[in-house]
Amino acid sequence: MKKRFSLRHALVLCKRNLIKLTRTPEQLIDVTLQPIIFLVLFLYVFGGAIEHGSRSEYLQFLVPGLIGQTIAMSSISIGQNMNADIGNGVFDRFRSLPIARSVPLVGAVLADFFRYLLLCVILVGFGYLLGFRIATNPLLLFAALGLSICFALSFAWVSLWVGMTVRTAGAVQGVMFLLIFPLSFGSNAFVPAATMPGWLQAFVSVNPLSHLVSAVRALLLGGPVAAQVGWTFAWVAGLLVVFFPLALRGYIRRT
Amino acid sequence: MTDLAIEATGLTKAFGETKALAGVDLAARTGSVLAVLGPNGAGKTTAVRILATLLRADGGTARVNGFDVRKQPAKVRESIGLTGQFASVDEDLTGTQNLVMIGQLLDLPTRAAKQRAAELLAWFDLTEAAGKVAKTYSGGMRRRLDLAASLVGRPRVVFLDEPTTGLDPAKREDMWDVVRSLVSDGSTVLLTTQYLEEADALADEITVMDHGQVIAHDTPHGLKRVVGGQRLTVRPADPARHDDLLDVLRGIGQAPQDDGRGTVTVRVDGDDVLPDVVARLRAAGIAVDEFSLHLPSLDEVFFTLTGTRSRDNGREALV
Description:
The complex is a heterodimer of chains A (255) and B (319).
Chain A (H helix, E strand, L loop, with lengths): L6 H17 L5 H18 L8 H20 L1 H10 L4 H6 L7 H28 L7 H28 L3 H17 L12 H9 L1 H14 L4 H29 L1
Chain B lengths: L3 E12 L2 E12 L3 E5 L6 H8 L7 E6 L2 E2 L4 H6 L1 E4 L11 H11 L4 H14 L15 H13 L5 E5 L7 H16 L3 E6 L2 H7 L2 E6 L2 E6 L1 H8 L3 E6 L5 H9 L6 E2 L5 E4 L6 H11 L3 E7 L3 H9 L13
Parallel strand pairs in B: 3-8, 3-9, 6-7, 7-8
Antiparallel strand pairs in B: 1-2, 1-4, 4-5, 9-10, 11-13, 11-14, 12-13
């Protein structure tokens, strides 16, 4: 006999995570400073060398790509934090309460919504200061950000699974880097895939980050959106179906 | 429905090669206090974690409030409160935030959760610290907040795992008062302890555990009859009078024991023999440095019950 999942319970624990975040605001570096650093780095260091017209044209290409890449990078912290957090005695208390076992994990993911929102606002806002302009309309901007956060919240379960599986918080980072580097650079985030060898193009075309970046580009700059948005949602669903149960199983084993 | 709030039969649990529990029976009547007495590593915490559904037993059955801990864990969790050996509070949250969070997870409306939090903080003398982050609390305050957190839902069965270990004597008395008031409200309490004195002060029945097994179960009165009630310990001011002291104490009670460190301990039947002892010491002209009446230490209890000293002899057994 299992206790049914309650959204209110998850929101209570979401609030707990947000309170913890306000106690150590430096935890927000990965969604505040990091996107700014990447934007400056790629635009001014690599931007000139990348064959893509002028710098301002490359900026238009880069901002949607960085949304995909920084979302993947920022997912690392939820796995790291939960890895450290479950050693906290309060998790014993959660387990002795009549709440569903998944509640602490879902609460942590819900709290991450605000981190990703901040990430998107900073990236698009700082991009705007450097000259990035959307070619469509504000409604599609919101759609793009919504899609990105949706993807981020499902990708967070990969990080949670790693966090529940490896032993230390440091190891979470190591494993996630191994995963995120091929995903973010083996994609169309920074350069078009056309110059890559065929086998790599094949990888780029199935890479979930490529689909997210293509969908965001189409929503912000124009072009056909339906297929790429569809693929992105397929990946969102796929990641959830696979990694939610895996993360939950890891959590139950661990505590 | 039986009148037993806690009922465990033949619990077994192994961690790898280590047998933590080797067939343990426990029973507590509704509204009573059951003390589980034993040294570190006896299996007390394992038993509590099984009863609180945090751990699954390898064998045996257990019911709490009539619900099977294996088959109906959610039902069990609705009616229990647990305070572990290590305070399970969230250090980044304030006292109030900790308790309100637990209340909301127990489906109290937010206003009721806040009210209950304030009530408990007042009861545990934490009102002034209510808005401070738990990280800044002293060990005793954390312990009290932890106990408060386990009482948010007014549980009918409360598990206290060594609630006074590491507390100073005054705080220990406070904790005892809390236990007494829980019982007077009709709750059932299972507490684990290393102190016979604590078990004697609070419990209706005492189960003594060692090496994952129950080695005795009795009322405090019955247990004390077996292990011999109070001890009188005397240390002569002049070590040369040691043998004279032994002669005097032989006249008082059974077989005085010499601990080899200059003190002599003798079993006595009650404190009414004290004037007599004092008179005899004065008549013999023996001055004393130490003169104390106490219950047997855990070591002495185990010595009497099992005929062997409990394993970790180096540990200071305080009573």
